[in-house]
Amino acid sequence: RTSYSKDRRIVPCHATESSRFTLTCATDNALESSCPHSCKVVHTSDFGQVAFTIEARPGCPIQLTKYMVYHTSQTASAEELCGRTEWTLDRVVTNGFQELLASQQQYMEDFWRRSDVRVKNIRQDRTKRSTVEIQQAIRFNLFHILQASARAEETGVPAKGLTGQAYEGHYFWDTEIYLLPFLIYTSPRIARNLLAFRHKMLPQARARAKELGHRGAMFPWRTINGEEASAYYAAGTAQYHINADIMYALRKYVQATGDEAFLRDYGAEMLVETARLWLDLGFYSEAKAGKFCINGVTGPDEYNAVVNNNAYTNLMARENLCYAAQVVESLQATAADAYNALVGETGLDPSEVKAWMRAAENMYVPHDEKLGIIPQDDGFLDKERWDFRNTPSDHYPLLLFYHPLDIYRKQVIKQADIVLAMFLLGDAFPPETKKRNFDFYDPLTTGDSSLSSCVEAIIAGQIGDVDKAIRYGMAALLMDLADVGGNVKDGCHIASMGGTWMMLTYGLGGMRDYDGSLSFWPRRAPEDDATLLFTLTYRGQRVQVEIGPENVEYALREGHCLIIHHETEEIQLTQAHPVAVRLVSKQELT
Fold first, then answer.
1. What pTM, to 2 d.p., does this model score?
2. Beta bridge partners of 27
3. Three-state secondary structure call for residue 447
4. Which of 302, 352, 456, 546 is labelled catalytic?
5. Which of 242, 152, 215, 145 minimizes the C-alpha distance to 189?
6. Is 302 tagged catalytic?
7. pLDDT per position as a tens digit, 229-282
8. What is the CATH number of domain 110-508?
9. Which of 197, 195, 171, 191 is nearest to 114 (CA)?
10. CATH architecture of 509-590
């Protein structure tokens, strides 16, 4: 701890003992009055006070303006951070409150112009909520994402954002899978910062992989400074899929922004090291006809831990391996300097790339011919079904009332797992496959995680189950405002809030970006007069999508020319020429 004062200014700085995070909160005070007054400053390492004594007079105004500045860092010393804080404080005091207010107002206007999602004419008989209530919930969620991520420069986004102490401010896979899609398409600079933060922890990830006996890099399941902070390996470290989740987000970012420089300078190195880990973790199994298998892992569903061939993990690992090979081969062919730098940094051998592709091409994905579904893992279908009928309604979440071993032995799911894969990799699953899997897994899913409802709403909508899409969608949208899980006292569910944006754009809006291009497959349900409007930033241009009762209109709000697709029809947009397309009345999305 360190603290000092200057005139009416107090500058305290604290540093955490282990992670050496530094935090400074400096204050300055400006008192304006013609009344006689004096000032006394008292401070210690933990306490600061500026006390004014004023001889107040009738009709003599007194105005006190207090300026506060926060700075935090993982790398700066206390002295350096105090210097930064004082520089910022000098600037804001000089500019004054009105300029600060105007700049904040402009910042928020810019945010809503890029990010707002607007709805009209919602059928309250279906949603049990008015249009005003739903619009409030949407903006409540988007605002909290902004608040949690706006200053993410050398940090991640805590699971509870700025709203609570739960999870001790740690970062999880939530960031890449649930938050980054929103940020990529509304605030790409912040998305870039968050991916750069993952690259920054690559040395610790390499060390962690070595500790676990692997080549490559193993990103921490739960962290605040790059080190693994999960205390329970079965529901923490065993979730190897976080490597693929980060690389999935990297690919989405590069495709949506065209930021090839980031891919060369940061992304390629992460791809090499994560691909190495998958190749080292898996093996070619004779029992599975020589297929590449990945054993002893936990997927997104933490109620089935340390299993063999979790389908989500295998599918996402395959994507990771393919993308790594694709990027390395592209650099070798088109950017020799960048490729040579990558080889120098990682010691990459060309034979590794061939091995990645072989593993990807031979990746084992479970399949049950009789049920026509993808088993969540090798042993899932062999388990006894959880006795939902005799489980008291107040005994959820299950992990708070039942021993993990009891849960692990049963067919019961905490959150969307293979259903999540069908959303993220949706082009790999025909509609009938999505329906069979959703119909099988939905009754087994407790929704004990706030991350489940938004994904289930999207897939339910895609298979035409409107009632479930609305039910899950409203649960996700009101997760915090209505305290759906009964735990908002611990803080808001920031990742679920990101999921609601995906639910509105990818779900209701029919947005697809699997191949890096933008397409939309919106459908209106019969007798539905609702309107949905949202905006996306794509390759530096801003496109607005407005889906009404009869038509969908695409309009370019910023930029010169943008090519998108309405279903399979190519549409060329300019600011002068928006395009309207008549909608087909169907419930099913493709």
1. 0.94
2. 10, 68
3. coil
4. 302
5. 152
6. yes
7. 999 999 999 999 999 999 999 999 999 999 999 999 999 999 999 999 999 999
8. 1.50.10.10
9. 191
10. Sandwich (2.60)
